[in-house]
What does this fold into?
Amino acid sequence: MKNFLLQGSANAEEIKKADILDTATILFANKGFTNTSMTEVASLTGIVGATIFYHFKTKEELFVSVLENVKTGLVEAFSLYFQEEHFPSGLERLLGAIAYHLHIAEIKKEWFLLLRRHYTHELAAVNPTCRQHLEVVYTCLVEIFEKALTIGQEDGSVGQLSAKKTALIILAMVDGIIQLESNNLYNAGTLYSELLASCRKMVENK
Amino acid sequence: MKNFLLQGSANAEEIKKADILDTATILFANKGFTNTSMTEVASLTGIVGATIFYHFKTKEELFVSVLENVKTGLVEAFSLYFQEEHFPSGLERLLGAIAYHLHIAEIKKEWFLLLRRHYTHELAAVNPTCRQHLEVVYTCLVEIFEKALTIGQEDGSVGQLSAKKTALIILAMVDGIIQLESNNLYNAGTLYSELLASCRKMVENK
DNA sequence: GTACTAACTGACTGATCAGTCAGTATTGAA
DNA sequence: TTCAATACTGACTGATCAGTCAGTTAGTAC
It folds into this structure.
């Protein structure tokens, strides 16, 4: 009854699929691929185990779709941020990007958990579609920092350095902090301002 | 026959156990806990599946022993390094420690893969022994950087900063780089010298 | 109402795996 | 030689799970 307007329409399946994807994202992110069963995803979406195979042929296909979803979400979030924010200098743009990265990592923990799962990278080595999604994500993240650094070098706020390599180092650094926090080894939240200060010292023009 | 001198002696079991631990370390590190079967570990150690349960009561017990082994190895490696090396300044000590960290991560990839596995951290949240091993490792790694920074502040090579927080940031950074490399997304090896330069800029006294 | 299709289901299969257990082989000590 | 302990084994159990399939239900078009 609840779906009577949609049943059979082009949207019905899309909505159900999106439902499954949301559930699967959280489960894959938090429990990993192997420890998440298709039946579990189905149940939490309100369908019976076997039905999920009607929407996604295999577990791997579901996983790749989840990754694609995360990719789209991440790329959109950053593109929106840079549409709305403007910065006095390349250096400030870099620091803004880092802060926003940390912010998204907090409100969308699943995304970053999923990206860090070993299975994601193991599958990428073997499944071209998966690899492509993963590459888009990482390229996007690196290029954000790289662009800010390049702008900063043009306006004089950033010193002499390889924009590409420094962007990679900053990404590794930000990711490392996110990870420290999610592993509960230290309350890394208190490190955010320290991290920004460190990055400033690392790249600023003296 | 091959064990006839050892059979029954106090050492026989220890040697067999060490054998199993070496195999299990590599498997757990590369395939994860769930995707490694006890039978597989046993076979690769030259015993029949069921026999492994004679040496380790459960799979979890085996995992914790593997982690303990890694902990001991890591702590020993660093303690040896600092016994043999001496540095002109705290800053140089820090850079030496970072370089050595990257070096061990290269020759003992399994150790760092294991430490980064999600299962390791999930188990630590639930198993006190596991948690203790993990804490010893991280405390050791952080304190190495922290000590170098403190020495550097005393001798004037390192600027005004929180040694503890900066040590955490550097650890996150180094770990992030190791991870970038092991995920094959970029050839992070070429980033090592850039990383050291960045760290120098981050902490040096100006 | 009939015919057709999309969405869904329950019951099943075959495979894998942690852990058990009753029993065998090997060895050192008496 | 006997005894007891140590190290090991093969056969088994019970549970989980991805994926299949034949069939049912619900909605749509005519």
